[in-house]
Amino acid sequence: MREKTVTEAHIDFSEYLDRRRLFVEQRLIGYLIATDPDILWQSMRYSVLSGGKRLRAILCLSAAEAVAEAAAVPPKENEVFETVMPCACAIEMVHASSLIHDDLPALDNDDYRRGKLANHKVFGEAVALLAGNALLLYANEVILTKTPSSVDPSVIAALVTELARACGPMGMVGGQVDDLAFTGSVDAVKSSSDNDGDLLLERIHCRKTGALIRFSLWSGAKLMGAALSELDVLEKFANTLGLAFQIADDLLDVTGDIKSLGKTPGKDVQAKKVTWVTVYGSERSRRRLKELENDGLALLDNGVFDPAATTHLKSLLQYAIHRSS
Amino acid sequence: MREKTVTEAHIDFSEYLDRRRLFVEQRLIGYLIATDPDILWQSMRYSVLSGGKRLRAILCLSAAEAVAEAAAVPPKENEVFETVMPCACAIEMVHASSLIHDDLPALDNDDYRRGKLANHKVFGEAVALLAGNALLLYANEVILTKTPSSVDPSVIAALVTELARACGPMGMVGGQVDDLAFTGSVDAVKSSSDNDGDLLLERIHCRKTGALIRFSLWSGAKLMGAALSELDVLEKFANTLGLAFQIADDLLDVTGDIKSLGKTPGKDVQAKKVTWVTVYGSERSRRRLKELENDGLALLDNGVFDPAATTHLKSLLQYAIHRSS
């Protein structure tokens, strides 16, 4: 069979993304049809169902698919989806929760998100705050009550434990606190040694966005009964992809436009946030991204996975790096 | 043996409460010694370790003790404590989380709590909001990782599922939304039929404070392997105690003083909040409290539990009703 052209591969991957995004959207709608108290669920739906790339949910599905392909009798695609979808959707709910809280006046004070008014501009600060809490709690409930009973209860307990860790003080919430603590101090970080600056940047990224991305890949693999060697490769890959995703985000803040971003660009620079781009500049950030791309691709080709099984994970890394929004 | 005098029984019960409160405090300190990010854990500790009655944790312990006493070979007190303490402490963390968020300017905008500055007045709104989130997540982690391995994993999964429900849209967060939605509309509720008013009041109470109180008693009993008949009695008792606790709280808002309350009294009336007292007045609220006290005591004497096993649960109901803070 001849190798696919770049264009053909690109079309294939677009279809791959679209199909999974559609499944995730449909399932999220199903999980969020409740109406009591009405205003709370409206607010929850407003943010969860406002589009977005669904990258975290798709990473969860793709990791599950990569592990499934290696099984003696690979399960069918819809079996993989059924097993993983509650967790994939829970991750999107947790992510939406963090965006609602981030946009509040007490934190980043953003009026727009994905080209629409931020949750608190539509529902008020009180309901937005509570909808963020409700999504965090409901995400747990979805994993615990919607994951098929064929999954071992100890795996479900492990998922909820790791999700709490990924979101808690050593994860997302800790990263949000670091982000606040270092906002405005970009000059101080710039003048510190390269090594200190790197450590600080990696720590903030690792927690703020990295922890949930790591959980996305880990949980998908775990649900399909991944071997330790597979979990190990995926964890390293997740660290690489998470950092690359964040640096690409930081670059978009200086190169993106409001239309494709759906939010105001230039805010990091204005707020003197500590990001790869504000500390090291665009040129060096792009070089680091290229390194991460090479590292990530090499990790998946180290012999643990069949190369064919990780085609989509590789494309997802490249997508995280080269996206325009 | 002669029956104890009222004074003797009162001293016994005070000792009972003090001893359990001390254990809970010590264990909470142990769970909260982390320091990274430092400001986040400081903020979490500030609110969790600021005193309080620890009523919810003690209800959890007392329900466990009542069930334990009925066992063929009753476990020792310290075995009961070891089994239940992670869950009892998690409940206090969730409760503290809700108080931090309630006090934020976006919600009740309170500057004081338990006679000390509110969390957001000390740490700022951003850290307070994130500390509330962190406590919600860490509570789950404590149940999942600190409950002794002798407890069946399916029981632990049930605890986390029910905690998410007790806190989520149909529980605490839903109650906070209702509370907001009906703040200011006390006149409209007063002029509605008694039946509608009752239903609305019970719905708000049932969620806002009732759900976590129900979880406290249920989880303690469940951890000790309670029979369905025991869980059933305790659920009804929890509903009675939860409502009584809330009406007593509403009464304290009009009769309490700032020193013993540790917060500004009269705020419900000022904000035209829908409470038993603002809708029906103090007289009728006191009558309802008396009914609830009688109902609650009768429930525990219906033959499912040995009367001696529920002495402390009965005292806890009376304490919830007759307290001065």
List the helices and strands and how they pair.
2 copies of one chain form a homodimer.
Chain A lengths: L5 H26 L6 H11 L6 H15 L7 H27 L8 E2 L2 E2 L1 H28 L6 H15 L4 H11 L3 H6 L2 H30 L4 H28 L2 H4 L5 H4 L5 H25 L10 H12 L3
Antiparallel strand pairs in A: 1-2
Helix pairs in contact in A: 1-3, 2-5, 3-4, 3-9, 3-14, 4-5, 4-9, 6-9, 7-9, 9-10, 10-13, 10-14, 13-14
What does this structure look like?
Two copies of one chain form a homodimer. The first copy, chain A, is mostly helical and 325 residues long. Chain A is 74% helix and 1% strand. Chain A has a two-stranded antiparallel ribbon. In chain A, helix 4 (77-103) packs across helix 9 (194-223) and helix 13 (276-300) runs antiparallel to helix 14 (311-322). The mean pLDDT of chain A is 92. At the A-B interface, helix 2, helix 5, helix 6 and helix 7 of A face helix 2, helix 5, helix 6 and helix 7 of B.
